[in-house]
Amino acid sequence: MNSSSFLNMAAIGDFDPLSATIPATKVEITVSFCVLYTQGIGNKEWREFGRTEVIDNTLNPEFVRKFILDYFFEERQNLRFDLYDVDSKSTNLSKHDFLGQAYCTLGEIVGSLGSRLEKPLGCGLSPLCVEGIPGKKCGTIIVKAEELSNCRESVMMQFCGNKLDKKDFFGKSDPFLVFYRSNEDGTFTICHKTEVVKNTLNPVWQAFKIPVRALCNGDYDRTIKIEVYDWDRDGSHDFIGEFSTSYRELSRGQSQFNVYEVSVTLLSFLVDIEVTFLDYIKGGGENGVLNLNWYFFSLWFLGNPAQPTSLHYMSPYQLNAYAMALKAVGEIIQDYDSDKMFPALGFGAKLPPDGRVSHEFALNGNPQNPYCNGIDGVMEAYYQSLKSVQLYGPTNFSPVINHVARYAASVKDGSQYFVLLIITDGVISDMAQTKESIVNASCLPMSIIIVGVGPAEFDAMVELDGDEVRISSRGRYAERDIVQFVPFRDYIDRTGNHILSMARLAKDVLAEIPDQFLSYMRTRGIKPSPAPPPYTPPGHPLQTQI
Fold it and tell me: Which residue intervals make up region (Disordered) (predicted)?
């Protein structure tokens, strides 16, 4: 994905005014005085990322300096903002008055309405403390994310040659072009190669599309070198000539470049702004925010949860494998759901009071309203269901997939996208029906994530993933790849660091969702809605956007 920039503002309470961040995205942050901290994956250590400029004598600073951060949809990127009242020129933070602290994730900011998040400043004792400093009103901090545009431009170009040098003894040349981007140290890096046009001195190469980042790293005046070769089967291509130009020169339109005594001509140059995942997030659906419906958390129950050998064993000391997978994925995806209400279902159990076997039951025991409040609510419902149901096979996936598909089929305008998470520890019992369900669902706005836990063989899951061979049923192939499978055991940290295990799992589990989402929107020609207008506080003039 591309780059974002943060505009940070804080409304600070009643202190004496006279003493008073193809990754996804990048961000930059600073404050009167604000310090940004980031947290590494798998540990709780906070590292200082940067500081804002100091703004004198104000309780409502608007900071100019931005923090440039890489944005990854599939990672939980924790941020911490500490605000200080500067008393001297010292860089030692202990020499200044602490005003308050705020915690959030980068996903929270990006997923908020207009990518604008407002947080109360807390006392700094813990992420849960929002009470502020005793006897003082700490105020709020406002953080805004904006995607950097120069990471999104692509250009479509087409070239032709005229009377190129004849290099072959028999016949004419077989010319092709090689494009190089110049580096800051004066070296060149290859960034594109055209197809070979056989047996001609007047080739017309096919138009090609290349990101501006790849062509010139976003620097419009950086040198671009283009070499012309005559293709030889043995790889010893004959050099015809070369010329240099720049993005800015190319953007002026059709022009001719001399290669010794012959020429290459630019036929067309068309700039395109790539539509990205963030455009849909910001453009939104309901309430101005795209409803990424992490619609189902579906679990397959197996084994006696009272026994330590069960994958559902409720240890007082640590999460079981199912709970770790739920928490790892859920904590990230809830940042992109506006109401944070998640339907959670189980399958493969006998239900009270009559022991009826069900492959589709509400974890919270309420079939009319299976929604749980946030990931904590899903976890609580999961633990409660383990105490009330009797785990039972077989493992049928198709009923759950069909259930979500019915919802997805009713909303095809791009305002909602559905994601089904299945956590399982065994072999699928209805493989043929499951494949047919996936093929049918591949034309709908939905994705399926399967996490395999435990030591079982997951060959069937790999087949469903479709990364190597597109899944098919009855001779009909899936329209697109909508399934991502990962075995949890491949992500378990050998030192016992469960935080790191969960971070690794979530990163790979969610990595394909943006591309799967974009593939649906692009094939349907669905454009992102315009982003909402910038937020303007009541009684304030429109703020200049940076």
Answer: 527-546
C-alpha to C-alpha distance for 360 and 348, rounded to whole angstroms: 8
**Nearest residue to 532 (alpha-carbon basis) of 64, 146, 24:** 146
Spatial neighbors of 312 by CB under 8 A, at least 6 apart, are: 301, 302, 303, 305, 320, 322, 386, 391
pLDDT over threshold 50, residue 424: yes
Q: Which pTM value belongs to this model?
A: 0.62
pLDDT value at residue 373: 92
Tell me the CATH number for domain 153-273. Answer: 2.60.40.150
What pairing do the DSSP bridges indicate for beta strands 349-351 and 361-362? unpaired
Q: Which CATH architecture has domain 31-144?
A: Sandwich (2.60)
> Could you tell me the end-to-end alpha-carbon distance of the chain, in angstroms, rounded to an integer?
20
* Helix 431-441, helix 398-409: angle, nearest 10: 10
The confidence band for 153, taking pLDDT boundaries of 50, 70 and 90, is confident
Per DSSP, the three-state class of 502 is helix
- Mean pLDDT is lowest, of 91-95, 228-232, 534-538, for 534-538
452 class by beta-carbon count within 10 Å (0-12 exposed, 13-18 middle, 19+ buried): buried
Rounded Cα–Cα distance for residues 102 and 80 (Å): 6
